[in-house]
Amino acid sequence: MAAETLTPEKFGALSPAQFFARYREIAGFSNPTRALYQTVRELVENALDATDSHGILPNIKIVIRRSPENPSHYTITVEDNGIGIPPQHVPNAFGRVLYSSKYVLRQTRGMFGLGVKAAIIYGQMTTGNPVEIITSTIGSKRIYYFKLRIDLKKNQPVILERGSWRKIRDWHGTIASITVEGDWSRAKRNIIEYIRRTAIVTPYANIVFVSPDGEIIYYKRTITKVPIPPKIVKPHPHGIDLELLKEMIKHNSEKTIKDFLINSFHGIGYKTVDELLRLIKINKDKKVGFLTENEIRKLANILRGIDREVILQFKDSGKYKTLLKMLQEAFPWLSKEKIIQAIEYVNKILVDKINKKQLERLNSKFDPTKLKIEHIDALVRALKKYYPRIRPPSPSALSPLGEEIIIEGLKRVYEPEFIAAVTRKPLSYQGHPFIIEVGIAYGGKISASDKLVLVRFANRIPLIYDESSDVAWKVVKPRKDEKDKKGKKEKKEKEGFDWKAYGIEFPAPLIVFTHICSTKIPFKGVGKESVADVPEIENELKLALREVARRLRIYILKKKREEEKRRRITVLARYVPEIARNLSIIIRDIMGTNGIEPLLREKLIEAIAVRTGIDKMKIMKAIEDVGIET
Ligand SMILES: Nc1ncnc2c1ncn2[C@@H]1O[C@H](COP(=O)(O)OP(=O)(O)OP(=O)(O)O)[C@@H](O)[C@H]1O
Ligand SMILES: [Mg+2]
Fold first, then answer.
1. Of 88, 102, 121, best ligand 1 pocket probe by most atoms within 8 Å of the beta carbon
2. Which protein residue has the closest C-alpha to ligand 1 atom 10?
3. Residue 303: what pLDDT?
4. pLDDT tens digits for range 132-147
5. If residue 84 lies in a helix (H) or strand (E), which one and from where to where?
6. Which domains does the chain have, with CATH numbers?
């Protein structure tokens, strides 16, 4: 019997540290090459978060040293002049997975409370070496030193050495050193590229890099303007889920629901609270600690608001037979009559206005699995009529670079002849504010490339790996030539960007820069290498790209016109000396007048100048350049 040969299942638990030790690929530590790169990245990100996010002009020094004992071991040391770490937090910040000062709503590079620990764990597993930290906060009189390792099983720091000494000069910041197994020769290219791209978004930073071969790369600060630091904001109701709401309720159980909503969320005022509570029929003076499970559910539901994602989520569950049933479940605080009204309204506007053929008629019996995106968007618009106005998520939590910094950064690294940059207005997806920035650099010292060069950033982190799965690539990649048969064209939504329409044909000396900032970047993994395609983000990227590409097209057209003009002068100039000479011969023969050639030449140049609008000096220069003997 099969059952006899079966061994019983063994159960156990893993600590977060053990989990990331076992599955370190998830955090980007898949092999020595990638690990060396990732370690540099984690340390640099933390160093920059400690400086520019607090309005400090960063001085960052990155040193990679090859171990004299073992050539595949490397010590990475990153020093910053940031805010430093209070000594009581150092052990956990570096020794406990999922410990962070960045679990607040504010744009920072760090998000997970994992990065530096993943590097330390990898180092510990491959070289056995502990991490060393030297740090001092602003205003502190002492500098602290720690040497520690991580107890994987307990997910706790084990302090091996610690000490402190008095400051003799006014230094603040952090120096962290981690030793890992690495492969410099293979990682070199990506590490140097990573630092270069970091330099693009931080023209206000001094960055020094010393490689294991002693090579030094120095990016000197070119401007002294740091982007305005992001502020910590309250959560937006649309970004809330049941678990989070319960957690917040636990900490505010003494408050009335009215005060709780006004104080704990962004964008909810007195009027909105009254309307929301009326819809879910909860007394506004009820203490949140006394809310029933059912009331909490209703509250969580109504706070999420009405958006595409909510409908998609219900639609994808596939368990609803009719549209009416589905919407009733998705928005239980809306009466049946209102939902039916909204459906009828949508049917009317869609069938009247857009794409009559493609859209099926909606009614309350409609099969929800057949909903198209146009249906959903129109339903959202119709249903929103019954939802109180809530202010959009606050952009003060964000810190975009701004056009000036993007232009300066691209200039410092690429030295192009043309640059344009756009910072779009803040918008939100699922309750998270975001801003899209796009830049374009063209010509100058950029060499022409067959493949479009995209430099991607998210919360000022350069993203180097997994380009093809990133939403930015989906938007900027050159659109394939469509040689397809008629009819099919309309059906397939076109991906990519029509560069030809903007005067660009590859190979082209072109760099496209994209930056997404948000309090929550929808990364596809904890290694933070690619961003998921959220429709709102994708759309903003498209709009921003079109705007900079339009400016580039104008520049290219102008340049072409000037080239054409120059070509024409050259053609005309070629004839001036010859015509002048021949005419002077004729005149001398007929009229006996000598020495008239220079005068004729002058007259001809004048005539060309009048005709073409080109400066006389330029024409004379062109005559010299074509080198026609006179
Ligand atoms: N150079 C530094 N200066 C100041 N604080 C630092 C520095 N390095 C680390 N920290 C502190 O240690 C914490 C943990 O860092 P870690 O890289 O593990 O996580 P994180 O940066 O918060 O998130 P992520 O996992 O996304 O990197 C940070 O939140 C920060 O408070
Ligand atoms: Mg970090």
1. 102
2. 46
3. 93
4. 999 999 999 999 999 9
5. none
6. 16-219 (3.30.565.10), 237-384 (1.10.8.50), 395-478+497-555 (3.30.230.10), 557-626 (no CATH)
